[in-house]
Design brief:
Elements: H1 15-35, E1 41-45, H2 55-69, E2 73-76, H3 82-92, E3 97-102, E4 116-120, H4 123-132, E5 136-139, H5 144-158, E6 167-170, H6 172-187, E7 200-203, H7 206-214, H8 217-224
Parallel strand pairs: 1-2, 1-5, 2-3, 3-4, 5-6, 6-7
Length: about 230
Amino acid sequence: MSPIDFVDPQYHFSDDERQRLERIEAELELGISELQSIGPAVTVFGSARSSVQSWEYSSAYALGKALADRGVGVITGGGPGVMEAANRGAHEARGLSVGLNITLPKEQHPNPYLSVGLEFRYFFTRKFLLIRYALGFVAFPGGFGTADELFELLTLMQTGKLDKRPIVLVGTEFFGPLLQFVQESMVRQHYVESRDLELVTLTDNIDDAVEALFCCTRFASAVNTN
């Protein structure tokens, strides 16, 4: 039964509204059907603008490869930059490489290193799926999109809408001032609690990033039982 069927029958949807609801439902159904059986995976966030020559690209590539070598798949937003690098590392190590691409006015083409590739019209359906099937998360430097994804993760865990999962931030120079702001402004003024950041690890080292993921009991047990 469609969610639309639960709405008060007295309410009249315009054709545009009904078509939008149907598109949203179709995106979620497709994503769930494709991803619900992928096994252990980590979602990697980061800028589409990072060049192949950047340290972010080489680090994300190394991360994707390291995770694949340990039997963990990689999920990204499917585009270029950091996303491509993580997918490429996983792909070249013969691991699972998932990309959830978004259709934009300036079209973002999916990168060529995907074993599973899906296209989305809506950011929120895509973001739900980027989070839903990951055991942990790694964020590299990025812009508004990366910040949005990171703070939504923290909000979901803070409010109990998502069970605690490890979050690794790669790039001390980039993320250090952000965490300092959170501690000195948000925590000090009691808008958030220090414990809300307990599962956040800040590092520049990919080996340390991988170990931070596996140090989470739930993460490690899920990988070992797969």
